[in-house]
Amino acid sequence: MKIGLYFGTYNPIHVGHLIIANHMAEYAGLDQIWMVVTPHNPLKKKATLLDDQQRLQMVFLATEDYPKIKPSDIEFKLPQPSYTVITLAHLQEKYPNHEFSLIMGEDNLKTLHKWRNYEVILENHDIYVYPRISDEPENVELKSHPKIHVIDAPIVEISSTFIRNNIKEGKNIQPLLPPKVWEYIDHNNFYKK
User: Which stretches make up the Cytidyltransferase-like domain (predicted)?
Assistant: First the structure.
């Protein structure tokens, strides 16, 4: 089975994440998309980051009607901070019959050369890239790598930061969130302080 791993803090997960995940599931030749919830890095200030389990619950609520999209807490069980190369090695060992690929925005591709052991990732895994609007210069060398697949996906300019800030200001951002995620956030008074 071909699995696309879509990493994120999902604080909160929003319709933009689902649009991209669903597009990859339908058009990139992947059987499933696992939305890997990144745990809180203990070295970073927590600020507005919700608890790991709360963010996982929101991903679960957002994806339960999408059979090809699954929440994943795989990084919760690994040493911190999490490095993608370690997560991939762990998954390959745990699921030897699956083929794992990465899903990332074009902005992340531009900094991939700074990732720990990025050459190992490129050697063993395909990377599916969705377009992002960015002022950063392109990494042309990486973009033409045979393991990099730039997918003509919709450009979605919604950010979790925008959503959190607007909830705090009392704005109605319901259309940007899956309904069950909005209900969960509203019921628990998340992001209001």
Answer: 5-165
The two structure tokens encoding residue 17: 């994440």
Query: What's the CA angle centered on 19, arms 61 and 30, to 5 degrees?
Result: 95
Share of the chain above pLDDT 90, in %: 76
Residue 123's nearest CA partner among 151, 78, 92 is 92
Q: How far apart are CA 50 and CA 39, in angstroms?
A: 10
DSSP-derived secondary structure for 112-167: GGGSTTHHHHHHH--EEEE-----SPP-HHHHTSTTEEE--PPP----HHHHHHHH
Predicted TM-score (pTM) of the model is 0.92
pLDDT-derived band at 65 (thresholds 50, 70, 90) equals very high
pLDDT at 14 > cutoff 70: yes
Residue 85 CB neighbours (<10 A): 17
Residue 70: which H helix or E strand, with range? strand 69-72
